[in-house]
Design goal:
- This protein has 329 residues and is an alpha/beta fold.
- Helix content is 37%, strand content 22%.
- The chain has ten helices and eleven strands.
- A six-stranded parallel sheet has the order 3-2-4-5-1-6, sandwiched between helices. A five-stranded antiparallel sheet has the order 7-8-9-11-10, with helices on both faces.
- β10 and β11 form a beta hairpin.
- 40% of the residues are buried.
Length: 329
């Protein structure tokens, strides 16, 4: 179905906004907007209602969407925390910690969030991770609340691979809410394969004895591709953490593949281990924990981290953009 036809079909009803099938205490829904006016018309009442109810209100959106809402809300905008999603959520794995931190800072308060992780302009890999993030939200906050999160989707960004109904209990305006096993939905996405490593990628096997050499090899390659010194240091540290995990938890060895594509350097680490924690790298593990800190660190250092794990093994793909400049943000 063409994107615009889909958007029209989704929006023709004015279904009630109660969430059906969502986890207790956590309401997670979405709406599709066609243009800027439509976005403002749908987003503004949601934020105003939160302020009227005395809730903590935060909107994580691209800058152009923030500007639209500030203009529409006037003085009320000062009561809302606005965060640039293109910075804070450039790597979608950083978004769950953002909401979790908001809840920690306001214990016992009702939280209302407007977040657009799948904003137009993202790469295909970023859209894929935004979809996984949306599914993992239902796992991360299943027993949290009161927390209501609404996610705008531009009709121009929708595709058969990016369908909000697959990860949201309700899409506002659709005829029916979804009642699915959201943990199973997240597990299926977490266990799906990433696109194949290209045949022209450089590869190198490693074990414990090769960790230093592999890190040095990857850093020299990244530097030769034009990555800034700070980014090279960040990427090398992230890689070291992931390769160390492969040695400790992935059978003692792994395979590193590296290649450049679309102005992005990609380092892929594959091993025979399996990760059962769907939120690995998105929740800071305790100091006494045995694992997870390396993946957390990689998420803070890289522009994008893709992690998939199943019975066939684990794959972690680190992305660092050549056009970013400076260190990780």
């Amino acid at each position: 179905m063409p994107v615009r036809d889909y958007a029209v079909e989704v929006l023709i009803d004015s279904a009630p906004e109660a969430v059906n099938g969502g986890p207790a205490g956590f309401q997670h829904d979405a709406f599709v907007y066609i243009d800027d006016d439509d976005f403002v018309r749908r987003a503004t009442p949601f934020l105003r209602d939160g302020l009227s109810a005395g809730e903590v209100v935060l909107a994580a959106l691209p800058p152009e969407r923030i500007s639209l809402l500030r203009k529409e809300l006037g003085d009320l905008a000062g009561q809302i925390t606005f965060i640039d999603m293109t910075v804070a959520g450039r790597n979608p794995a950083r978004i769950i910690p953002l909401w979790a931190d908001l809840m920690r800072r306001h214990p016992g308060r009702s939280i209302r969030g407007l977040g657009e992780p799948a904003y137009p302009g993202r790469t295909a890999a970023e859209f894929t991770e935004a979809k996984l993030h949306e599914a993992l939200l239902n796992v991360a906050f299943e027993h949290s609340g009161p927390f209501r999160l609404r996610c705008p989707y531009s009709a121009a960004a929708l595709s058969p691979e990016l369908e909000p109904a697959e990860t949201h209990p309700v899409v506002i305006g659709s005829r029916n809410g979804c009642s699915l096993d959201w943990g199973k939905v997240a597990l299926e996405l977490f266990g799906a394969s990433l696109p194949a490593v290209p045949g022209w990628a450089q590869r190198r096997e490693f074990g414990l004895a090769e960790l230093t050499a592999v890190r040095r090899w990857a850093a020299e390659w990244a530097r030769s591709q034009g990555l800034s010194r700070d980014q090279v240091d960040d990427l090398a540290l992230a890689l070291h953490e992931i390769c160390t995990n492969s040695v400790r938890f992935g059978g003692g060895q792994g395979t590193l593949s590296l290649w450049a594509q679309h102005r992005t350097l990609i380092l892929d680490v594959a091993d025979r281990g399996r990760i059962d924690d769907l939120l690995v790298g998105r929740v800071l593990p305790p100091i006494e924990g045995l694992g997870g800190r390396g993946t957390w660190m990689a998420n803070q250092l890289c522009d994008l981290v893709q992690l998939r794990s199943s019975g066939t093994g684990t794959q972690v793909r680190l992305h660092s953009r050549l056009d970013r400049g400076g260190g990780a943000g």
